[in-house]
Every structure is written in C-alpha cells, then in structure tokens.
Amino acid sequence: MLRDFLYAARTLRSSPAFAAAAILTLALGIGASTAIFSVADAVLLRPLPYKDADRLVYPLADLKKRSVTDHLWSNANYMDLRDHASATLEDVAAVFTTRGNVAHDDGTPEETVEAAVTPNILRMLGARVVLGRDFLDSDGQPDPAITSDDGGVPPPPPDRLLPTYAIASHEYFVRRFGGNPKAIGQPMFKNGPVLVGVLESGVELLFRPDKDIERHPDLWIALRLRYGQSRIRLSTRLIAKLRPGVTLEQAQTQADTVAAEIRGLEPVYQGAGLQIRLERMQPYLVASIRPAILALMGAVIFLLLIACSNVANLFLVRASLRTRDLAVRTAMGASWWRLVRQMLAEALLVSAAGSILGFGLAWAGVHGLLVNAPSNLPRLDATRVNPTVLAFSIIAGLAAAIVFGLVPALQSARPDVAQVLRAAGRTSGLSGGSLLRNAVVVIEVALCFVLLVGSGLMFRSFLALQHIDPGYDPHDLLVFGTLGGRPTRNAVEFAAYVEQMRAALAAVPGVESATSANFVPLNGSFFSNRWGLEDAVNDVSKFQSADMQGVIPGYFETMHAHLIAGRFFTDADNQPGVHHMIVDDMMAAKAFPNADPIGKRILSRINTPTNVWYEIVGVVGHQRLTGLAEPGREQMYLADSGFSNQWALRTRGDPAQYAGAVHAAMAKFDSSLLLTDVSTMDSVMTRAQTGTRFSLLLIASFAMIAALLAGVGLYGVLSTVVRQRTAEIGVRLALGAEPVGIFSLMIGYGLRLSAAGIGAGLLAALLLTRAMTTMLVGVKPTDPLTFAGMSAVFLLIAVLATWIPARRAAGLDPLAALREE
After folding, report:
1. Exposed/middle/buried for 333, CB within 10 Å: 0-12, 13-18, 19+?
2. What is the rounded distance in angstroms from the CA atom of residue 233 to the CA atom of residue 221?
3. Which SS3 state, helix, strand or coil, does residue 112 take?
4. At 48, phi and psi to the nearest 5?
C-alpha cells in the first residue's frame, strides 16, 4: 500500500490540473458540509450544559380552549405541580428574568440582567457555586409581612422585610467587583440584595428565544414565593427534572392529574381548558429551528454529492485515458485487485488533500456563519470546529473517496486486454464508460436542480418579506428601552413622569413626535390577554385571547398606523377610571362580524383585580408585533402610561443621527435613567428578517456552487464525447455535414442530459422542498413559477457549459481529425 500511495502521489504530481480540480471541488463540498454540521452539532446534537440534561423537561401551561400555548405560571400553580407531582418529578424550579438599573458609587447607571429564581434551580441544573454558598431553601421563605397582593395594601416597611439574597455570575462578579471576595456577604448596593455566592463561568438559562428569558443573567436572586397569591397572577416559567427511571409518559399522566386539580380550584382555568404539557428540554428548545437546520444540512449533503459526482467523472475520464496502460499491466500479470488498489490510493490521496483544505474552509466558514446567523438561534455561540466536527470531516472525506473512487476503479480494472491492445486510435480508451459518465452527470444535474429550487423558494420568501405591510411605517423611527429613573409613589405621579419624558424627547431638535408602549413592534414578547363579550359574564369558557399592548396617547400617530374606524387615543383616555380600548381589524371582525365595533364593549382583565368593560373607540390595521413572517393573533390596545417601557421617536431624516442628542436630553432630564437597545426601526425590521436572509444566503451559495460544478461536469462530459467521436465528426464533415449541424448535435446531446437531470430533479424537489415549509413566507413549497424559473436557469447553464465543446466539434478540420485517428 505504501508503494501504491507513493506511485499515486507521483501520478497526481504529473497531472497537476487534474489533481487541483479534483481537490478543490472536493474541498468545496467537504468545507460547506463540515461548516453546517458544526452548527447542527452545537444546536441539535450536543448535550445541554446541565447535569442529567436528558431528564430535564419544560412544564408548559396550555389554554386549549383559547388556542394559547406555553402560558406563564402563577405561584400557586407552580407549587401545586411541585408538590403534587413529586412521585415522577424529582424537582421543579421557577424563573423569570428582568433588566435592572444599578447605580455605581459615582451615580453612573449600569444595566444588569437579573434572574428571579426559586432557590433550588442551581442545584437542579448542576451549576456550581465557586465562591461563597448556594441558595438555601430558607432564602425563598415567604415574607410574613406581606398579607395581600390585591394592590390595595401598602407595602410593608423595609425593616419588616426578610433580606433578599443574590448569586452573581462569574463574569459580572469580575466586572463589578474586580473579583474581590470581600464583596461576599455584603449588600450589592444601598438597600440591594446580599451577595452570597459566585457561579462558575458560563452558566446560562436556556429557553426558546420567544419566551423572554435572558440567557446570561448577571444576578440570580432568590424568589420569596407565597402560595396564597392569585392563581391568575402570572409571572414565571418552569424547569423540571424527571426522577431516575421515570418515563415522560408516566410524568405526563401525573401532570394531567395536577391540571385537573387546578381546573377544579379556579373557574378561569376550567373555562380556558388548562392543560399541563411536559416537553423534554433538548427537543423542545430547538423545535422551531430544527427544520431549517436539517434543510441546510440536506442542502450541503447534496452539494457534497455533487462534488463527489464531479470528481468521479474526472476519475472516469482519467481511467479511460489509462485503459491501454492498465491493459498492458494486466497482460503482464497484474491482478484486478492490484489495479483497483492503486486507483483507490489515488482517490484516497485526493480525498485526504480535499478534506484538509475543506476543513480549513470550514473553520473560516464557521466564523462567517457566526457573524451572519440570526441571534435567536439557540446555543449558536457554542458552534466550534471541535473533535466531533473533525471526525465528521474525516468520515465525509473517506466516504467521498469510496463514492468517487471505487466505481471508476472497478470499471477500469477489468479491461478487455485483446481489444484494447488491438485498437490503435488515441481516443480508443474513451469509448467505454460513456453510459456511466452520463448517469453521473444526470444525477449531478438532478441534485443541483433541487438546490436551485430551494434557493428560488427562499428568494421568493425574502421578496415577500420586503413587501409585507407591518401596519406601521418603520422608516425614520428611533426606538429604545428605558430602565430606572426617579422613583414615583403612585400611578398618577408615574403618568406625569412619562409625560415629562415625552415632552423632553419631543423637544430634541429634529424629533417630530415621541411615544411609548410596553413593547415596540418586533422588539419583545406580547403575552395573550383574555377578552369576552356578554356571554362571557356567566360562562368563562366564552373568553378568548388576544395580544395586549399598553400605549400612551399619540402612539398610533407616531407609528403612522392605519386608522380604519373611530379615533385614536387622546389624553382623556389616559385617566383613572376611564376604560377605553382600540382593537385591530382582525379582532373587530372576530368579535363583531358584520357590525360596526365603535361604541361596543369588550370584557377584559388587564391591570385590575376583576374583569372590566372596555368601550371600543377605534379600530386600527393589524400590526406585525412579534414577527414579519406570521400575522400573529388579534390585538387590543389600552391607553395607560404604566406600560411605558419602550419608546419610539419619529424624526426628520436618518434617525440614527439623533441617538447622541437623545442620550444627552435624557441625561439632562434624569441622570439615573438608563437607555437600552438604542436602534433604528429599520434595523429592527432587518433583524426580523435575519433568519430568512441567513437561509437564503446559505442555500443560494450552495446552489451557485452546485450549478458551477454541474456546469463543469456537463462541460467535461461533452468534451470527452467530442474527443471520443472525433473520427465520426471528421467523417460527417467530410461527407458534407455543415458545422451548424455538428454544433446542434453536440448542444442537443448536452441538453438531453440536462433535461433528464431536470426531470429527475423535478420529482425529487416536489418531495424534498416540503421540508422547507416552515422556512417559507408567502410562497408554497411547490410553487410552479419557481420550478419553471429554475428549469429555465439550468437550461441556460447547460447551454453555456456545452457551448465551448460544441464549438470545438463544429470547428474540427475533417482531414486533421481523420489523420489523428
């Protein structure tokens, strides 16, 4: 074998063009597939960074009768699940995250990410405390001073509250305290939580991106939960761990029993059809993006197969040219296995070189993927070219060597010695194997066509996103969030504070108007809120759900929303005791079909202890609040300054140029106020399209490489045919055939191969593109326009690829061709 490899190296060195073409082609296929596999490995395959991760589950609260999935949990419902499902669930932890504003010693505000958690969560996840101590169960003991949560009881004095305990992330501890262990056991700031420990580096909270759980908390703060709080006061999400040996089905059965108990205790849940659904953490975490990653993985495997097909054709032609040499060696006693082994050695050398170069391309490609990938891809930052990825690259290279090396070797290792040695023509070796070469090209074209159709569908989706009306004008808008600010004692003072802030922002030169809401579109999660009509008064099952948005008067004018009926909010709507509402056209049509909704009433509980009737004063066009790809559910709007968490400014000209002036105006207005996530609404819209653009970029890149390789494959086959049929073409020309006829003959040959490949690819694409359904926007996976367009594109590629060989055939000198043969 060593002699075979040395001989193979010498033969490859003597054919540098062949070696370079084969190695580069293979490197493209292996590099692309390895890069995408590294993403699939990090997101789909690699175990979660938790202890006993295979036993972790998400308990999800679904309201079946309202079509609401994965609802938030109340304290009482969490405790019922924890206590009454303990036979199958070893532990259950609750968590929610917020962003805080912590002042440094000099008064400079700093944004922090805070996770409010039950004390058991770190032990359950296996997160180690490296300095200080973990939470104790007593750290979550309810404060005895709190007796009611109905909003009417004043908070207890600070000296009657139990202390709050916090554990810092390693990164925050180093950033804030310089890693000084003396900070342990001390309040983090005035009236702040007591720091009791520091976590190991890299601890993270993994939830789906749309659940509003921050992944990397700076502070973990122990929650003091009370059982007696209202069951419909929702705040947390849950993580649970199955007991060893317990199946998910067994745990689900017990969770169903707990759900039935909760429904019996709370009529609201009985009417909403509460169900508790347990989902294993790993599959559920990536469920929404698994189809896209698998589609990309399928695309690069197609690309790798196309590369292998191309290299196989190169080896077939090379083996054909060496037929005489192989026949001589066979006549001298060489066994067929000896010849196969020698040619496999060449294939393995090409594969090794292609794998090494491809691995380098993958390493560079991973960095490009991390830059361009959507930020909401779970665990994307864990993407690395690690030993698992290296093993994939090696296996891909070996598999490629077998695919493109074995068939040509087996075909050429049994030459008809007498016939080959009797033949004298220089192209006699090319006469065999044409059927196999043609079959390889047809397969190559079919695979390429599938990729072209996939890229065409993604391109159509991207165009559809550009033309979606979001229900507002995103241009000339600057958006940001706020944290902290001067404390206020009640809702009236806070409303006055918000109005002063709005006036200060509107006074910035170039700002036409300023508005605020709980979330600006595409910049947060919108939780469903129940609503009903007259029949819901006595039957809670009649309540339905819609997304609720709290805004200040002037919101719709600043956002340039579409007013369909009635009016927008005024300052009179933002007063205590006034219950007015604006709904979107989808909700108006659902609640009051074929009727004017203005003046009608909606029953809802938004920021009051009980249900309240809200009068509809306006109807606006539906807005894309959570994403551009899907319309989302119905929407209702309430005028209330208490929801003012995010702001939007309508500016004259580019809003980005006003960011500095806005920061200065807010620092002057209130130095304790912190502005976060300052960006233009156009950039927010761009981020909302990242997933589609990312998939389009990758699939289109793979399709272009595949089209190039398929074109090269067609060119190679037709060039071989021209060389093989040189004598025939010479005879035809000598007998009076026109060069145009020869040209058409060769072009037709290439187009027939392409048509066969397109036909096979058409059937494959009709089946395989259905896997892209969740990635597409405004276009079906069987879109006839895309299929027809890609067919035309590839036929054009085929014409270009066959043009030069056909011209060469048409330009042959018949005497020279016959003399050469």
Report:
1. exposed
2. 20
3. strand
4. -65, 150
Strand 109-117 relative to strand 234-242: parallel, antiparallel, unpaired?
Answer: unpaired
Under a CB-based contact definition with an 8 Å cutoff, are residues 437 and 692 in contact? no
CB contact at 8 A, 361 and 35: yes
Which residue type, as a one-letter code, is found at position 237?
A: R
As given in the structure block, the two tokens for residue 428 are 């006699």
User: What is 69-105 written as a DSSP string?
Assistant: EEE-EEHHHHHHHHHHTTTTEEEEEEEEEEEEEEE-T
| Tokens read off for 568 | 């927008």
Q: Which of 792, 749, 799, 788 is nearest to 765 (CA)?
A: 788
The dihedral region occupied by 778, where left means phi > 0, alpha psi between -120 and 50, and beta the remainder, is left
Helix (H) or strand (E) holding 639, with range, is strand 635-639
Amino acid letter, residue 784: P
Split the chain (821 residues) into runs of 10 and give each run's mean pLDDT: 80 81 86 86 87 95 90 92 95 93 73 93 95 93 61 53 90 92 88 91 89 91 83 89 96 96 91 94 88 86 84 74 63 66 80 87 82 73 77 80 67 52 47 68 87 90 88 94 84 89 94 92 80 88 90 94 95 89 95 93 84 94 87 90 89 93 93 90 88 83 85 78 72 81 85 89 89 84 91 88 83 70 54
Q: Return the number of other C-beta atoms located less than 10 Å from residue 155's C-beta.
A: 9
Which are the contacts of 271, defined by CB distance < 8 A and separation ≥ 6?
65, 539, 540, 541, 542, 543
